[in-house]
Specification:
The protein contains 13 helices and 17 strands. With 441 residues, it is of the alpha+beta class. The chain has four domains: 51 residues, no CATH class; 89 residues, Alpha-Beta Plaits; 119 residues, Gyrase A, domain 2 (2-Layer Sandwich); 172 residues, Multidrug efflux transporter AcrB transmembrane fold (Up-down Bundle), CATH 1.20.1640. The protein has a four-stranded antiparallel beta sheet. The protein is elongated.
């Protein structure tokens, strides 16, 4: 059992180091990259790359703030309308080719805003024009194709013929449940003009797919089962409740467009970001070396153990940043560096307690046990207080009376991750290392 535990720890440590490797890392004549996981399950592809994601201030790009005009949106539809606008903007940004965009909604001074961070973008004016368009939802039917191409052309690629039925004809899309099977479905209702158009479209497309698109992005392509003349239709399928809700929100985005206007724009050059990254890395390395030197000089063997635990802490934190992933900004780096100091603080509390017990005449094994026991309460209190502050700054619930700005949230997120990791390394890893070294001694 002990050998199995050691093997498990060794494999876990190897994976952490592998995830932390920089891209194109050279080891003798071999090039090693962080792992990439690619899974294809029932035609659904999922890919995960472990790499460091840099924010605007480190990579360069544009920060855009759009103000949403919600004056014509009823309170009951407000949340869905804002979520739809955010989702559509994200699709447009992805279509534009921006990697790792950050799109968020927030409320400030009674006004609703959508922030868009576009790392590495160069053609800002085109992006603004693309994002600011009003969402266009439309229904498309299958275009006429040559018989020999009908079997080779994907269905969605053939659904290109406009039907003149758009989002303005939809009154509402909502999630309902099939009374016979109990499965979730999406119910649609149309206005008077939409009822006529939809009746004509469904009559000529029985047994054929009818695509629903937002800004030419297909979001669904249900098969028409029968002509629908009363203006009430349902989209069925093997939906989960979340999938049905997302589809209803996407459809409502065409019926409930939220006009937006650009109110703020900041452009950041990549050269500034590169310069700041280098300064931050150098500062972090110098600070870490000074901490290690102090710990080893002052505490001797215990300091050497704490330094090893601190290095392990750094590796685990970086692996977590890449695993989530966390978009690193300058404030985020500051939060991480601050958490390093707190990790050292935990070790100092433990060591000072151990020294107190030794001065009282306790043997080393008793001093280790009592020192950890007495220090743990102070460590927990200090870390819980810091986590509470991080929660307030992060404001995950978007409370209006708390900060809602990305830079502050980046600081809070890395600080919280660092503090929780330091709590784990200080209490668990440092204790295990001390037991191992002192038992061997």
């Amino acid at each position: 059992m002990k050998k199995l535990k050691i093997f498990f720890v060794a494999v876990l440590f190897f994976l952490i180091v592998w995830i932390d490797l920089p891209e194109n890392f050279r080891f003798f004549n071999y090039t090693i990259n962080p792992p990439t996981i690619s899974i294809d399950i029932f035609g659904i592809k999922w890919k995960k790359e472990f790499k460091t994601h840099l924010g605007l201030d480190l990579k360069g790009g544009s920060h855009l703030v759009f103000e949403a005009d919600t004056s014509k949106i009823t309170p009951s539809d407000l949340e869905d309308a804002l979520n739809s606008a955010r989702d559509i903007i994200e699709k447009r940004v992805n279509f534009f080719g921006v990697s790792e965009p950050v799109i968020q909604t927030l409320k400030s001074s009674g006004k609703y805003k959508i922030t868009v961070d576009l790392p590495g973008i160069t053609d800002v004016s085109r992006a603004i024009s693309l994002i600011g368009q009003t969402a266009q939802l439309s229904f498309k039917e299958e275009a006429t194709v040559e018989p020999k191409l009908a079997t080779t052309t994907p269905i969605l690629a053939r659904l290109t013929k406009n039907t003149n039925l758009t989002g303005k004809h939809i009154k509402k899309a909502k999630v309902t449940f099939d009374p016979q099977t109990g499965k979730p479905q999406v119910a649609l209702s149309f206005d008077e003009e939409g009822i006529k158009l939809f009746a004509e479209i469904t009559s000529r497309n029985v047994g054929k797919p009818l695509a629903i698109t937002v800004d030419d992005f297909p979001i669904s392509a249900p098969i028409v089962q029968q002509p629908i003349t009363d203006g009430n239709a349902v989209i069925t399928g093997n939906f989960t409740i979340d999938e049905a809700k997302k589809l209803a929100v996407a459809i409502n985005s065409g019926a409930l467009p939220v006009p937006i206007k650009l109110v703020e724009q900041r452009n950041i050059g990549p050269s500034l970001g590169e310069y700041e990254v280098k300064k931050s890395v150098y500062s972090g390395i110098i600070g870490l070396l000074m901490i290690l030197f102090f710990m080893i000089t002052y505490y001797g063997k215990l300091g050497l153990i704490a330094s090893l635990a601190l290095i392990i802490y750094g590796l685990i934190s970086l692996a977590i940043f890449r695993l989530i992933p966390v978009v690193l900004t300058l404030p985020g780096l500051a939060g991480f560096i601050l958490s390093i100091g707190m990790a050292v603080d935990s070790n100092i509390l433990i060591f000072e307690r151990i020294k107190e017990e030794q001065r009282a005449g306790k043997k080393i094994d008793i001093a280790l046990k009592l020192g950890f026991g007495k220090a743990i309460d102070a460590i927990k209190d200090a870390n819980l207080t810091t986590l509470l502050v991080a929660f307030i700054l992060l404001n995950p619930l978007n409370w209006e009376f708390l900060p809602q700005f990305g830079m502050v949230r980046g600081f809070a997120l890395t600080l919280a991750i660092g503090v929780m990791t330091s709590l784990f390394t200080g209490v668990v890893i440092t204790k295990r290392l001390i037991n191992i070294f002192y038992k061997k001694a």
